[in-house]
Prior knowledge:
It is found in: Membrane. InterPro entries: Ferlin. Keywords: Membrane, Repeat, Transmembrane, Transmembrane helix. This is MYOF protein. With 217 residues, this protein is α+β, with helices and mostly antiparallel strands. It folds into two domains: 1-114, no CATH class; 115-216, no CATH class. Helix content is 15%, strand content 28%. The protein contains three helices and eight strands. The protein has helices at 32-35, 104-111, 196-216, and strands spanning 13-20, 23-31, 53-63, 77-87, 116-124, 168-169, 175-176, 185-193. The strands form four sheets. It has a two-stranded antiparallel sheet. A hairpin with a 2-residue loop joins strand 1 (13-20) and strand 2. The longest helix has 21 residues, at 196-216. It is extended. The two termini are 42 Å apart. Mean pLDDT is 82; it is low at 67-73.
Amino acid sequence: VFFSPQLPPICDEIQLAILSGSKVLGTATLHLSQISSAGAELEEGTPGFLPCFGPSFLPFYGPRPDSARTPSTDTGVAYQGRVLLELSTHMGTPDGRQRDTIAPEDIARVQRHLPRRRFGLCGVFYSATMVPAGPELLRFELSLGNYGDTGDVTCKPAASITPHGCPLFDGNRYHYLPWYGEKPVAAVTSSWEDAGHRWDALNLLRAVCRHLVSTHG
Length: 217
């Protein structure tokens, strides 16, 4: 995708969508302010960089399928999949290419990272306040990708949802769930590609930055 040079930019988002015919299955958004930098305003400041992203998996979310909904409980959006995406920006004249195949060396590079690791996610819900009034019973769901999604039949069931609760009036203008001394817990176990080589480098850089700030700040 080629962008004409416009400074300052007239938009800050790149919106991507997965389509099935004319139906939108899922969407994702890249914010230019998060994947680029104009650099420091000072004459000898830090140089900036053009928009770049990945290669990394980008999750897509969309409306829940009708078959996955249960009465008066599940609404909103759900995880629909992910795309391995790389975005780079180059100055110059477009060469007219709109579609290209994935290079064999890129496929071989991805194949090396296919070994998977298991990950666990646990959440403790301490309170649910300022809940709108309504006759429906409420519950919370904890999910990681499609793991933990009660409407996704491709993954094993998990203890990812809280018990149903009836909101009570707080005496002012909102409602709350009466959890009191017993807090619900949800947990999800998932399996993903081993991308520790990226996390290790990022965590190391962040640790160095924190150390420099604490010692020289």
